[in-house]
Amino acid sequence: MSKVRPSPWPSPPAGEGTGAAGSLSPFEGESDWPAGRMRAQFNTRFNGLTMRAAKNTKRNLVTAALVAPAAAWLCVFLVLPFIAMLVFAFCERAPEGGYQAAFTFAQFANLPTRAAAFWNTLMLAPAGALLCLLVAYPVAYYLAVRANPRYRLILVSLVVVPFWTSLLVRTYAWMYILGSRGIPNLLAMIGIEDVRMLNTPGAVLLGIVYGYLPLMIMPIYVSLEKLDRRLLEASADLGAKPVSSFFGVTLPLSLPGVMTDVALVTILLLGEYLIPQLLGGGKVFFIGNALVDLFLQSRNWPFGSAIAVTLVAVVVVVLMVAMRIAWKVAGTRQVDLV
Amino acid sequence: MRALVSSVYLFLYAPIALVVLFSFNAGRNASEFTGFSAAWYGKALSNTFLVSALQNSLMIAFTSATLAAVFGTMAALGMERLGPRMRAFFDALFAAAIVVPGVVIGIATLVALVAVFSFVNPALAMIWPGDHPPQLGLGYGSIIAAHGLFSMALVAMIVKARIASLGRDIVEASSDLYATPLTTFRLIVLPQILPSILAGFLLAFTFSFDDFIIAFFVAGSKTTLPIYVFASIRRGVTPEINAIATLVLVASLLLILTARVLMRETKSKSGE
């Protein structure tokens, strides 16, 4: 047994350690160190700190330089325009068009005159997104689970390619098909006369599904592909039929991805202009069409700004609801498979 | 199941195929195919308005995508080093730039720029020494700025996701072996995030090249290809538009194929 030296420091709590020199008690070393060594260590630590401080300033400068251009861009072309639009919404329309300074809620009080645009948008955007989901989910499921791995890359590319091509051109193609010389013309040949397809809500919905299908398929495909196959095997081993495996395992696990996907597409649809313009032909119009009219044709900027501000508010509400649902679903269902 | 999926693919491609087919139609009639001819392409390409719109679109897309790739990547790298609060703040701003509808971005930019110009132009006229002071106005600059906003956020998001998926250990190993931060960045980080930067650039390019609604608001008197196509569609469906539409489709197709080839090459190089 070694002798315990008397020390000026409070003795380490006995119990866990043996109290003998050379034990691994965390207090041991400190109590043994002479004051001089302590100071030396403090000094090197202090020098380390000043060096670290200098290093930190340099580091901060580099960080600032890296984010500065993006920050400036966001301020000048996102934050500032937003403030400007908000200010305009409380202005008055000048007699010759454009705007004049004022502070009035008249523009917001005027919103009901465009109720039809809001109604169409708030009905058709979520409906279009859900319809899109109904078509997209089986395709995504097939690509992720059923498709032959040899052809998977090609099949996925074939879904991606339309997304990369102009929405204007793709929507225009449907104008062609649904127009009077397209399907109605063919129907007239077999005796069904006077079918109107273009400029109906159905045409707009079709355009929405067509335009946003790739965007709906891809995230669902990604979330289904990441799904751990062992879970499905386990489910089958436990005697589940493929159908109940799907509803018990695959579908719930892909739900968070599906939710955010539907929310994303809905939000993009809330601001849609081209599809209702080309396929709705002024009969089925969205908020976006009202905005183009107010800014570029009738030049009522303050009223247009008020509508745009309201549209942003709607987008924010949809986003918050979607995030809350996704959070809830993810919170209770997420399985960590790392 | 397979039948369902096949019909979805048919649904995706039949309209596009129809436009391409009818762009080769010899006759004027949009509903009857009367024979093959490339005449409408000749007509489209000798249309000076169309060609200049195409040039404008390419220039705007290239400039905004390049700026977005550079600044977006810088921002993604910088955000890694920010504190959690500042990072959340940037995340929110970037998310806003992506989620806010294009219509609203277009309007807000239009309103703000017109308001700013109404102050700046008289001031410029006062202090300008010569007779013809420069008049700031809407045009290429405003389209590039508005497209760049979305594209930058897009690149930042993509690159940030890639950085987050990188292993920290290889970066630490590099600095343990006395590589300077810059060397570590050049040899370790950059090769790994390059595919994402390229993907972001090409995505940004196609976004800008295809965007109609933002440019519609902030283009001023300038015309981009989508604005030109939109205006001609409103005048009526003609085979010439089909030819233009086919050219746009082919351009996008070449872009995405280039992107895929580039990305695969970079991937196999950095994967070793």
UniProtKB/TrEMBL annotation, chain B:
Q: Where in the cell is it found?
A: Cell membrane
List the InterPro entries: Bact_Polyamine_Transport, MetI-like, MetI-like_sf
UniProt keyword list:
Cell membrane, Membrane, Transmembrane, Transmembrane helix, Transport
Instruction: Give the UniProt entry's GO cellular component terms.
Output: plasma membrane
Checking PROSITE patterns in the record gives: ABC_TM1
GO biological process terms on file: transmembrane transport
Asked whether the keyword Membrane is assigned, the reply is yes
Name the membrane topology term: Multi-pass membrane protein
Q: What is this protein called?
A: PotC, ABC-type spermidine/putrescine transport system, permease component II PotC
Which gene codes for it? potC
